[in-house]
């Protein structure tokens, strides 16, 4: 990161949309179409490049064009594991206050997927909110609430339908002025339709419901930031089929899934909760206190997080070794 004082006279703005190598930046002086400096483009890894929600410093030129010269330090950034990689991160949005995990009350509803989103969101100190959309469809509310009882203590739950305006109003009232809210979820859950309903106007394209599947066709192809009149800032994201954890500390999972109280009572401090004698976690399952499905989810996610953190650690070691090698080569050249 360059010294920010160097650019003290340049304007700041926030990235609203990323178009491959072009960035739409909102500032006090309007919207600018910006590109990156060569140093930024080639000197950063993919997840370090500006993303939707990032605050940047840019040099304006011509009418509504500019060059991004630096970024302000990131806070509360939502990541996921990049698809097809061992430990690479993909940035979803930066400077986020809340994340709306959107699921629809049809075949899309998946409790394990909810846990996966919730854990990554909590890891980044972002407040998770579960939005169960398409509540006009037939579903057993009591059954859904029973299934969510161990997750509901971690986040508020809203039942919404664009056909029931009062449910949209309650969701809108939960967004405070100035808050940034990112919408995440699978394709077809109605994220864009929800944002349109919250905005009380069509700001995002949506598709008709597919006759063959009964679901809305996925339309969001990019992350896009929108201002909600008199309220907060919304970030729409494309639907994801896979949401891999990008967590450096697998031990944090126990607390997030309410297993830590049992784990702390295990006979051995390094208990893996698989077959050790005196394992309080396994005892809680046998006594019907701990849901076996929550336990299975915890074990699966812990393995995934451990694999990511181990690979990330190895990658950092290799990067450090390579950097030392580069420094040694430079010193040799200087001493010639």
From TrEMBL:
E.C. no: 3.6.1.-
Ranges of residues in domain CP-type G: 75-243
Residues given in the record as Zn(2+) binding sites: 266, 271, 273, 279
Cofactor note: Binds 1 zinc ion per subunit.
Subcellular locations according to the entry: Cytoplasm
A Pfam family: RsgA_GTPase
Family designation: Belongs to the TRAFAC class YlqF/YawG GTPase family. RsgA subfamily.
Record's protein name: Small ribosomal subunit biogenesis GTPase RsgA
Organism: Butyricimonas hominis
